[in-house]
Task: inverse folding
């Protein structure tokens, strides 16, 4: 999958958790929490969304790698 | 129905047929106004309306939009167009929409639907401002009342949650993503269990009388993304295990953010928890939400030096504070509750 496709997967997972964010620009290296007030519940649902879209069972210890858009794309790429 | 707390779903507890709708969409009515009548199978007319405690104003809300603040909307006079319905003309005038620019519907008439569709494409900024100020007003009024009427006392403890967090990590390692728990779930479960022995912290105070309730309906303070705050209750929290508590929390948060809360969730809370979460502050001194008589505040979990088995070691600690209504309970009640809570949290596998 290309980087662009992976980025779309991450975006879709994020926007399904926070539909009001759709259309907003995402800073690739800033954490979701800082940019959008994503709390722990939102974040867990984001991970669930990513997991469903990619079939990956993302372990908790990997969460720190998925705090930003850039980090998430890189993680998904490495896992393919 | 649109209230100061946002749009909520009115629940009906009677079986029957909707007999008569007394209020039109978009209409503003005072609290207590009859919304509809239901004909029960036995043909008796039953009122569908349930009184809502904190709402100052009830507005039946059309699905698409809600009133923009009057100050910002310029007065637009709507031309007397033959091909516009009276309802559409009125709606357009309220929203400051220039009807002459709207295309008519399939029947050649500019109807309510055409105006609504146009309004929904406009920016939501003013809509949010109005929703926000209504919610802020509701919070201001409840908190002012709490501060002036309720004599608060406070007790607090730094609770060691190292065992809780290790248990949680082990649990989540063996669970699929969709089944994982946040620490809030066992925390709420422990609070519910501890409250079973604290009758004077769970109930309502009205007109000089405290009424304890057997049900433990825990209000959860939830932040909505644009600075709002609302506390819908997990009903019967005392009957739910940790997994069920997690599901309810998730569901509640989702519906709080999408205006899907039910009136019973907003009016039946018997106690409240305000859980700050990650990267916040160490402790909170919360304000009781009347007519409740207690509120539990949980600060962020932080690793700190602590004494454990006679050695100074790093442990995970969380500062929990309880505010109690001094007309109903005293420091000892609150302190005993916190002690019980702390003991329960040392054995998360038994929650």
Result:
């Amino acid at each position: 999958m290309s980087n662009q496709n992976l980025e779309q997967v991450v975006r879709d997972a994020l926007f399904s958790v926070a539909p009001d964010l759709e259309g907003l620009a995402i800073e690739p290296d800033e954490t979701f929490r800082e940019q959008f007030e994503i709390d722990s519940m939102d974040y867990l649902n984001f991970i669930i969304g990513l997991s469903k879209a990619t079939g990956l069972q993302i372990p908790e210890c990997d969460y720190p790698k998925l705090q930003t858009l850039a980090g998430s794309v890189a993680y998904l790429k490495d896992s393919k | 129905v649109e209230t100061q707390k946002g749009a909520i779903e009115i629940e009906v507890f009677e079986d029957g047929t909707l007999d008569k709708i007394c209020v039109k969409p978009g209409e503003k009515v005072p609290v207590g106004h009859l919304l509809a009548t239901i004909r029960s199978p036995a043909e008796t007319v039953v009122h569908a309306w349930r009184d809502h405690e904190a709402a100052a104003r009830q507005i039946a809300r059309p699905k698409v939009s809600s009133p923009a603040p009057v100050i910002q909307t310029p007065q637009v006079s709507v031309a007397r167009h033959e091909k516009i319905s009276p309802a559409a003309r009125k709606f357009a005038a309220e929203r400051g929409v220039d009807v002459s620019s709207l295309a008519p519907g399939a029947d050649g008439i500019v109807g309510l639907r055409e105006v609504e569709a146009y309004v929904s494409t406009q920016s939501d900024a003013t809509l949010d401002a109005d929703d926000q100020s209504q919610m802020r007003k509701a919070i201001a009024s409840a908190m002012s009342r709490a501060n002036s009427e309720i004599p608060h006392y406070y007790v607090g403890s730094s609770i060691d949650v190292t065992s809780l967090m290790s248990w949680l990590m082990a649990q989540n390692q063996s669970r699929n993503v969709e089944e994982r728990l946040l620490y809030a779930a066992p925390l709420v479960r422990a609070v519910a269990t501890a409250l079973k022995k604290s009758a004077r912290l769970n109930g309502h105070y009205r007109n000089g009388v405290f009424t304890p309730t057997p049900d433990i309906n825990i209000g959860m303070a939830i932040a909505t993304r644009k600075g709002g705050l609302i506390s819908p209750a997990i009903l019967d929290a005392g009957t739910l295990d940790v997994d069920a508590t997690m599901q309810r929390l998730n569901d509640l948060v989702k519906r709080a953010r999408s205006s899907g809360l039910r009136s019973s969730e907003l009016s039946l809370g018997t106690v409240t928890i305000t859980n700050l979460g990650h990267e916040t502050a160490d402790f909170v001194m919360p304000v009781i939400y009347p007519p409740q008589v207690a509120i539990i505040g949980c600060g962020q979990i932080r690793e700190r030096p602590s004494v454990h088995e006679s050695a100074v070691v790093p442990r995970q600690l969380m500062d929990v504070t309880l505010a109690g209504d001094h007309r109903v309970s005293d420091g000892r009640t609150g302190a005993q509750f916190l002690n019980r809570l702390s003991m329960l949290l040392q054995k998360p596998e038994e929650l």
